[in-house]
Amino acid sequence: MILDADIKAQLAQYLQLMEGDVLLKVSTGTDDVSRDMLALVDELASMSSRIKVEKTTLDRTPSFSVNRIGEDTGIVFAGIPLGHEFTSLVLALLQVSGRAPKVDQKVIDQIKNIKGEYRFESYISLTCHNCPDVVQALNVMSLINPGISHSMIDGGAFKEEVESKNIMAVPTVILNGESFGSGRMSLEEILAKIGSAPDASEFADKAPYDVLVVGGGPAGASAAIYAARKGIRTGIVAERFGGQVMDTMGIENFISTKYTEGPKLVASLEEHVKEYDIDVMNLQRAKGLEKKDFIELELENGAVLKSKSVIISTGARWRNVGVPGEQEFKNKGVAYCPHCDGPLFEGKDVAVIGGGNSGVEAAIDLAGIVKHVTVLEFMPELKADEVLQNRLNSLPNVTVLKNVQTKEITGTDSVNGISYIDRDTEEVKHIELQGVFVQIGLVPNTDWLGGIVERNRMGEIIVNKHGATNVPGVFAAGDCTDSAYNQIIISMGSGATASLGAFDYLIRN
């Protein structure tokens, strides 16, 4: 049995929702993965009379396709879609059977209108929490448009293929044999990337807002909800709804919820925002802000939005080390997410730059997968919590280097080493390895503001207790501000504070 009793019980409930028959075409060999795959599809067929199984030969072995009877949908799983991808399998079964995907009609029309042949391949790892979004989006596109097909490829099951294509980050998407993109992508982002996004002219005639929120993370969502509840005209502009929380794995400090995961929390936020009359403008990047009669927000697409007040909640991003080789080898051995990309470095030597909580947690996670981990910390001592340091020091395949400065990440086609300076002796040393994970904190997404609002030396927006900046009518919240701590729950609170501050500003002005 591939599925345990609890998963089977849940799955049985989902399979009852199937609306039509589904044919699984299976291509297997004599290897262990093939044997397990065959056991999985047979188990699925035994649980529902709507699931049929047929042996065939596909482009990759082992793999199986999910089809309507008499019609190929172009959805293929190469490898066994368990772990984080089990949901992708369940959704594929339900959607191919006839249950409509939860996608706006506008998006469905966009997919239907795509002309030409699009052969997508996504390389994933079963421990990657970013990968299912991409897999499920491409599956939906394949289902709706017969010119689109998608194969999910588990890097763990197809190691030789992954290494021959030099894929060192997941998810990595190939389109018609050429590199398409890497990292989490939503359905809307994929459509925008292939040139099927809504025209920017749709922003031209929007009336001025009472409150315009810039940023769609926890702070932005909270600010927009609080504003909309006051019955005032509210808009939210987001480069990516959910922001950095989309890349967060386990969340155990969100009060009242013992455990959740970033994408799940973001889905709840989005659902809550949609309960109100909020004009959500997703996949839009802010370019500049100017105070005139109204406060004017310029977008990268050239559109200008006007509002009586603005709340900036653009969050933060991973801080780069800023050394030679970092950008050149990004996704070629330089990585930022140990959960996602760790399995691709199985049996290899890697480094983690950063000795704070995130760096030490990354090193502990990686030590269970890779051959050896070297932690590089700039300061004389690690900054991580003592309990994490104790766990790290108990691991036999971890070396900790303190008081060292990263000098260069080296490589040819991919990373082959890291050079550092011993700050005690000023001696330059080099370690041969195949991967570098950067974990040195966050930098606020405020570069686009120029000098319009006052910021501190770290680039964080300076706010008062009402969330107000030095510019009347401009407020800020969350990780882009000089808040003492960067936490989801603090961002949500500061979003509410800024929104109440903006409402108070509006009624007084």
From TrEMBL:
GO biological process: response to reactive oxygen species
CDD domains (UniProt xref): AhpF_NTD_C, AhpF_NTD_N
Cofactor remark from the record: Binds 1 FAD per subunit.
Cystines in this chain: 337-340
Sorted UniProt keywords: Disulfide bond, FAD, Flavoprotein, NAD, NADP, Oxidoreductase, Redox-active center, Ubiquinone
Entry binding sites for NAD(+): 349-363
Essential cofactor(s): FAD
Catalyzed reaction equations: a ubiquinone + NADH + 5 H(+)(in) = a ubiquinol + NAD(+) + 4 H(+)(out)
UniProt: FAD binding residues: 210-225, 469-479
Residue span, FAD/NAD(P)-binding domain: 209-493
Gene Ontology MF terms in the entry: flavin adenine dinucleotide binding; NAD binding; NADH dehydrogenase (ubiquinone) activity; NADH-dependent peroxiredoxin activity; oxidoreductase activity, acting on a sulfur group of donors, NAD(P) as acceptor
Coiled-coil blocks: none
Family stated for the protein in its record: Belongs to the class-II pyridine nucleotide-disulfide oxidoreductase family.
Self-association state and partner proteins as the record states: Homodimer.
Name of the molecule in the record: NADH dehydrogenase
Organism (species): Anaerobacillus alkalidiazotrophicus
